[in-house]
Description:
Order of helices and strands: HHEEEEEEE
Number of helices: 2
Strand order of the largest sheet: 1-7-6-3
Number of strands: 7
Largest sheet: 4 strands, mixed
CATH superfamily: Cadherins
Strand content: over 45%
Mean pLDDT: 74
CATH architecture: Sandwich
Shape: elongated
Amino acid sequence: MKYLGLFTLILLTTNCNTTSENITDSQSEEQVFLKAFDQELQLNNTDTHTISIGDFGDEEGAVILQHPSQFEQSEIVRDASSNWNPVYKYKAKNNFKGVDVVLIETCKLAGQSTSLQCAKDTLKIKLTIGN
């Protein structure tokens, strides 16, 4: 019986590997799983804008890494209005015109059910605010 506990511990340790098989010595795990993509939007400064981040499962999500510098509202909302998928809501400060940037990190589950990993993407949204 005591060997069963040791065997289970070894089995769990080997199956819960959080690194990728393809990572070389010169790469970090973050470099392998971090993919950047950009989005540029032309917006007015009077409305609240809702920007879809994508389709997400219950265990997946998104966080704001860097808020824009000129915002009145900058938040991720996940509720029934977005079918429980995260959306980014942004409203510029009154009378602001120019360029602002928000960085959002998303986490999507990847891998087999025995060793799920968070595949991270960084979404960089360039917000050009006009009238």
